[in-house]
Amino acid sequence: VINSLRIYAFHGDRLAGYTERQTTSLNDPFLMDLELPQTGVFNVDFYLIANEAEMAYENGLVQISENMTRAQLEALKFTGLSSRKSLPMYCRHMNESIDVDQIRKAASAEDGHEGHFVLDKSVTFILERSLAKLSVYAAKAEGVSSSPHILGVELLAQGTRQYSYLFPQSSETLAAVAPR
């Protein structure tokens, strides 16, 4: 379930576009305004955040705005879920090549995009969930017919962490997160 979706587009470190949608289907296409130079081919990086209202950080909601920088997005972290009705999701789609010269000559008539030229380009995004997962594997000896029972689970010495990041981080960044 997608209750909300925010999409940020960056050309270099400059925010080239932003849009947000409420209660959307994963397969509904939509238009997004981008501010790019008038001609040429440009690499655009997209950052998507779905269901941000579910991310809680130290007894409050994670604060997200439309003017966030790339560094602020990559540093988003949370300590838990606020309602458990849906899960926060993300997508970091890098280096999408956009040829500004491939515009349709007719301007758009869609609400909010009146008079804008439309690129002949569709971009598909794949959302991922940003939650930890514990996997336990068991085996039984040949000839044993009973189901295995897990009698205990042991965590690494550093234990669980104080918070999690929404977007993937380097091993060094994760190692610096204090244990609970």
Task: Give the N-to-C terminal Cα separation.
Answer: 30 Å
Q: How helical, in percent, are the residues?
A: under 10%
Structural class determined from secondary elements: mainly beta
Shape: elongated
The count of strands amounts to 12
In brief:
The chain has 180 residues and is mostly beta strands. It has 2 helices and 12 strands. The radius of gyration is 21 Å and the shape is elongated.
Detailed description of the structure:
The chain is 6% helix and 35% strand. It has a 5-stranded antiparallel beta sheet with strand order 2-1-3-8-11, with no helix packed on it. It has a 3-stranded antiparallel beta sheet with strand order 5-4-7, with no helix packed on it. It has a two-stranded antiparallel sheet with strand order 6-12. The longest helix is centred in the middle third of the chain and has 5 residues, at 70-74. With 180 residues, it is mainly beta. It is elongated. The protein has 2 helices and 12 strands. The chain has helices spanning 70-74, 171-175; strands at residues 2-11, 14-24, 41-50, 55-57, 60-61, 77-78, 80-81, 89-99, 103-107, 117-119, 128-129, 164-165.
